[in-house]
Amino acid sequence: MSPYASPNDHRQYHYLELANRLKVLLICDPETDKSAASLAVNTGHFDDPSDRQGMAHFLEHMLFLGTDTYPKPGEYQQFMNRHGGSNNAWTGTEFTNFFFDIDNDYFEQGLARFSQFFICPTFSPEWVDKERNAVDSEYRLKLMDDVRRSYQVHKETVNPAHPFSKFSVGNLDTLADLPGRSLHSDLLRFYEQHYSADRMALVMLSPESIANQLTWCEHFFGPILDRNLGIPTVEAPLYRLEDLGLCIEQTPVKESRRLSLNFPLPPVDAYYDKKPLTFLSHLIGYEGDGSLLSLLKEKGWVNQLAAGGGVSGSNFKDFGINFGLTPMGMDHVDDIITLLFGYLKLVKQEGLAPWRYEEKQQVLESAFRFQERGKAQDTVSGLVLNLFIYQPQDLLYGDYMMREYDEELLARLLAKLTPHNLRITLTAPGLSTDRLARWYQTPYKVSHIPEADKIRWQQSEPDAALRLPDPNPFIATRLEPRSPELATDLPACLIDRPGFRLWHLHEHQFSVPKGNLYIAIDSEHAVKSPRHIAMARLAVELLCDHLNALTYPAELAGLGYQMYAHQGGFTITLSGFSDKQALLLDMILANRTLGYPDPARFAAIKQQLIRNWENQAKTRPINQLFNQLTSLLQPNNPPFEQLLRHLREVELAEMPAFVQQLFSQVHVETLVHGDWQESEALALAALLERHLAPYSQPSAETRRPLISIQDRGTLIREHGCEHEDSALLVYYQSRTTRARDLACFTLANHIMSSTFFHELRTRQQLGYVVGAGNLPLNRHPGLIFYIQSPVAGPQVLLDAVEEFIDLFPLAMLEFSEQQWQESKRGLQAQLSERDANLRSRGQRLWVSIGNKDLGFDQREHVCEEVGKLSRADLVRFIMALRYTHLGQIDPLQLWPRARAR
Fold first, then answer.
1. 507 counts as catalytic
2. For the residues 769-792, what does the mean pLDDT come to?
3. What's the CATH code, domain 12-221?
4. What is the location of CATH 3.30.830.10 in the chain?
5. Residue-level pLDDT at 710
6. Least confident span in 342-346, 513-517, 829-833
7. What is the pTM of this model?
8. CA triplet 207, 210, 212: central angle to 5 degrees?
9. Helix 530-556 vs helix 655-662: angle between axes, to the nearest 10 degrees?
């Protein structure tokens, strides 16, 4: 059968079950440049044996290390990489998902390899011990991760009989051999007891016909055994009575303060066609004028509010309401909770109205009607779990369905958001704790919420300042895409004069009433010193905070906007339905000078930015090294520790004059792309000038300097880091931006990356975070190698990287001519891949403008140069990475001074 599809979706779909009861969705997309497949198994860490926690995750790792048909470890990844593909997997609570994409011509061969994971994995004893070390490295990687640390506290405070309480990742302890039972034998047993066709679902996407895909599907996946395991069920409740009414206090690694209220609900998957929690989240999490968040911001207690998240599973659902607290908010936790329950009473009294539901329904219907194609791999991996949850006819529509307003259902769920059905978690530095969570050593304390507090909160009334949302003025009414006067694929420069440039492209391919606006405002004043850079970033944060309540209805209506500072000034981007984008842009520009910010909000936003920058020193070592690299090489992007010194000194009184100076001399570059006619693009330009011209003089583009390391020899920098792991980053910089150099760097990364990962991560077991990549900075390509390791110091890691580079030319010479040509064609296919949707095309065009690729053909030139490269060319290039007298590149090496172990 064919599921119901978006009117804007011209792909063919076919749903079926194979004879072995494997659920399958086949997608024929004649326009796709990549084919993809995703197979999910209704097995996750909930199924781990109590004395083998982490087993589902470990099994996921092991399936990549060879099958009877393709026994060589690493061959699968190398095959995918050589043919322009990628692959990955994840293990969750109740599902494990495997997926890949690849060039269309090699999809059948990719399926041949992929399917064997589920038919004849080798589970070679030789790799069992190595891969348990990789799992342990992955566990250690997150030891200082506050999300993982908080998750463990949650696990320790639920019903211990529920599988949610299990340790999901695994480590050397849980995956050790046991008396009379080896890890290898338990692995085989777990695979046979939990991997079965009747617990699996598969999605395939390809330009091949449905008939051909069906033939492949039956041939490759039909042999998967149906062990008749049935759907796993969880009987124990997540929370017992004694697990409710708790207040959990925990301390984080980073400087952060959060208040989380979680209300246990019954499972709601059966109501996917009505989306009751989506509707309630919309009302409770509203951020516009009169909202709970606006009131709490005004009082200086809260910076953020999110409603509707929380853990969920086959027999449980948490409805979470989470607040990002200010330091002052820590003294008003009880007041915040009181105001929340007063607001929930207002929602019960006035919120359950059909027109409100229909407004949300209209937004989702428009999103479905004009749904755009995503990347092939994202499509299959995003749809595969739907095969377990939705009816076959709703596999595509289910995420968007709001079939009918069901007030009784809404009232029933809303009635569970009470103080007597509540768990509170408070996270902040310095809280008093009396225990440590296992595995992650998170300090926490558990107490019971006093009954008097519950009764008082239950009796709270809505604050007079609170009101529910008005009808949304930003919901698009023009929903018919228009045909361009001239069908072209390249933007035209409509205005090019000192200080202002306007590009326009009325998109003809995707046929959606949407648009992208990109506005880069260059101002030398924003970057002329580290102090100015700090103030410019603060100004952007202040403006985003000021705009939040005004623009939130636009975001609800399917419009998005971002504002961010960069090396030349700052950029504003808008996306979504084009009908009301001019209204949103006018609102943003009218508020650009901030006026006179409220002193309390200024202090709160400044402190929040200080905390964010301070917390960068607590991220994992490899992330810190990436930050150090860009700061070393880009003078307009100073390190956080330097910016912090200046930010702490900034006073409110300085900001109005500084912001005025930001706009005094500017260069504006704009791209209007999508369902925009030329006259509308010119009207947007006039709108920009109307806001800017009275205050601004035209200026040249801001210079974006890049430090050259070519003539300095090898640069080595150390960076102090309080973390048990060591890390190393080695970066090779190109002297030029020529297409041939771009081709060399890109092809080297394409060929080296999977082998580098397999050699240093899988074979040598140096760490879980291992990779190679092409990292361009200010238009200059660069090749980067990075490792974070719990087992080796920086010098050992450096030796391993250099040895890999030294030996790789020999490996290149062992390439067959077929492998060499396939590798080049795979990269060329990636470079030639068509844009999947309006947004991806807009981003590519905007990057081209930023890179001064004003012919919009740089990737075509690079693709052509890749085709010209011989193996000897690439060998010479790789040798030049290590022996700089042979080439024009030098490395920059960074590593942290890790705490002694």
1. no
2. 91
3. 3.30.830.10
4. 12-221, 241-374+385-458, 492-698, 710-898
5. 64
6. 829-833
7. 0.90
8. 85
9. 80
